[in-house]
Specification:
Chain A: Keywords: Cell membrane, Membrane, NAD, Oxidoreductase, Quinone, Transmembrane, Transmembrane helix. The complex is a heterodimer of chains A (204) and B (347). Chain A has 9 helices and no strands. With 204 residues, chain A is an all-alpha fold. Chain B is mainly α and 347 residues long. Chain B has 2 domains: 70 residues; 274 residues, no CATH class. Classes of the chains: A mainly alpha (204), B mainly alpha (347). Chains A and B meet through α2 and α3 of A and α4, α5 and α6 of B.
Chain lengths: 204, 347
């Protein structure tokens, strides 16, 4: 218990501190870097609870891909941040409201599990014993065996969204030269090169 | 107090000692891999390569190390100082952190975790941060362009690496790297009634994936012919332009540690890790670590040769290769492998 608690507090403290830095950092790139630190610590917290697969997926997907794109966009933005920062207080009420809602929901969830611990047994997909079934396999059971059609539907929705984004942004220009690799590869000396015998002193 | 020592302190000491040992061996190995890279490159071009420091230039890397350490680190005036210095640290730390789960021999692994392969994949997908951060913090056009190229390139090739890993996973049924190597005890060769040999390794049934992984590995680690982030003819040195002395050395070290990691991952996934190539008493007597190092060296030799004789890709060709060739190919192979395994009942 002792060591786990120490690590929990380290991860939790760093996560909260860097989450605070995300909103208070002057430079938006620093904000994104702190956000990445938050993700990293969240992955650490997942590991502590034994959800190793989720921890790694958090690293791969959120830090390895999503946050890279975030950073990409933020680095290329050219905004006057002093101006952006001036109106920050007028959003404070909304921020406080959202914060209160999240806190209330957390209290309901945690309070519920403390008051009625037997409720955990009534869930449809109980967590299998990690000693018998690794959580990679357990998640695979749920996603690819029990709910495979929902998984497929989610995949289709993502595919449609992706195609939509491409259709909206694709601008296929005609009348420009394009490289056709297969045509290039198919060329032979017979079709591509003309060998000419040049007599010296005469030229072509 | 006694239980505290036996439960926490002693395992911690053992783990730190193991990590230090691995780190020292790894750094020495990297020093010689660097030298080998330069020597092979030189040999292909009929040059001698580094041959002054020590016999055959064997101490060249250490001389370079001293030079890097004793020179003055220069931080550009317009640079974002904190991020500028953090970037090499991030790069080298992540590249070395991945080695914690690499098994060199049966049970020779610091952390034998269930999701080892995913951990390697996750950490190597984070290595892009060292490059993006250094490129942005340098506050220079060249460095920034290099960083942008690198980010797009690494994210693109990670996709196909991910699918290659999935095909291996389908064959093995475990994310644990030790299990993956052990699964290669049996395979095509044993199916034909032969004793356990190199015919069982994954590179034969999954040959297209082996090739895709090798090339994607080149792109993922910014090796030539995919070294566009540091293409010297266009970007001088890309994201490393503004770096000097020890920070530069750390970027370099991170890069080579990542290359070596991809090499050892290739050997674990496709070439049977520490398994001997044929079942023969003399060959079985050679310790597994030797086989592992030999395989890593062989793959690195391939990397060095590619560096020496393949001209650099153009950026659009690089993207085309990643998204239009490797992605469909590896996706198709995932489907084919799954079908074959399901229909034949091999997995």
């Amino acid at each position: 218990m002792g060591l786990q608690a120490i690590f929990f507090y380290i991860f939790a403290f760093v996560a909260i501190a860097s989450a605070f830095m995300v909103i208070s950092a002057k430079n938006p790139v620093h904000s994104v870097l702190f956000l990445i630190l938050v993700f990293f610590n969240a992955a650490g917290l997942f590991l502590l609870t034994g959800a190793e697969f989720l921890a790694m997926i958090l690293l791969v997907v959120y830090i390895g891909a999503v946050a890279v794109l975030f950073l990409f966009v933020v680095m290329m933005l050219d905004i006057d941040f002093a101006e952006l920062r001036s109106g920050v207080l007028q959003y404070a009420p909304i921020g406080i409201l959202v914060g209160l809602i999240v806190a209330a929901e957390l209290i309901v969830v945690i309070g519920g599990s403390v008051l009625t611990p037997q409720a955990a047994q009534s869930i449809t997909m109980p967590i299998p014993n990690p000693a018998q079934r690794t959580n990679t396999a357990a998640l695979g059971d749920v996603l690819y065996t029990n709910y495979v059609y929902f998984f497929q539907i989610a995949g289709m929705i993502l595919l449609v969204a992706m195609i939509g984004a491409i259709v909206l942004t694709l601008r296929h220009r005609q009348h420009i030269k394009r490289q056709d690799i297969s045509r290039q590869v198919a060329r032979t000396p017979a079709t591509a090169v003309e060998v000419v015998k040049v007599k010296s002193g005469q030229g072509l | 107090m006694d239980s505290f020592f036996s439960t926490y302190a002693w395992p911690a000491i053992v783990m730190i000692a193991q990590s230090l040992l691995l780190l020292v061996c790894l750094l020495i190995f990297i020093a010689y891999i660097l030298l080998a890279d330069r020597k092979i490159w030189a040999a292909v071009q009929l040059r001698r390569g580094p041959n002054v420091v020590g016999p055959f230039g064997l101490f060249q890397s250490f001389a370079d190390l001293l030079k890097f350490v004793f020179k003055e680190p220069i931080i550009p005036a317009g640079a974002n100082k904190g991020v500028f210095l953090l970037a090499p640290l991030v790069s080298v730390t992540l590249a070395l952190a991945t080695w914690a789960v690499i098994p060199f021999n049966p049970n020779w692994v610091i952390a034998n975790i269930n999701v080892g392969l995913l951990y390697v994949f996750a950490i190597s997908s984070l290595e892009v941060y060292g490059i993006i951060m250094s490129g942005w913090a340098s506050n220079s056009k060249y460095a920034f362009l290099g960083a942008l190229r690198s980010a797009a390139q690494m994210v693109s090739y990670e996709v196909s690496i991910g699918f290659v890993i999935v095909t291996v996973l389908l064959c093995v049924g475990s994310l644990n790297l030790t299990d993956i190597v052990n699964a290669q005890h049996t395979g095509l060769g044993t199916m034909m009634g032969l004793p356990s040999s190199f015919l069982d390794w994954h590179f034969i049934p999954l040959f297209p994936m082996f090739v895709v992984f090798f090339i994607s590995g080149l792109a993922e680690t910014n090796r030539p012919p995919f070294d566009l982030p540091e293409a010297e003819s266009e970007l001088v040195a890309g994201y490393m332009v503004e770096y000097s002395s020890a920070p530069y050395m750390m970027l370099m070290l991170g890069e080579y540690a990542a290359i070596l990691l991809i090499c050892s991952l290739t050997s674990i996934l496709f070439l049977g890790g520490w398994l001997p190539p044929v079942d023969f008493w003399l060959i079985n007597w050679v310790p597994g670590i030797i086989w592992f190092i030999l395989k890593v060296g062989l793959i690195f030799f391939g990397y060095a040769m590619v560096k020496a004789f393949v001209p650099r890709y153009r950026y659009d060709q690089l993207m085309r290769l990643g998204w239009k060739v490797f992605l469909p190919l590896s996706l198709a192979m995932v489907v084919i492998t799954a079908f074959v395994l399901k229909l034949t009942g091999w997995a």
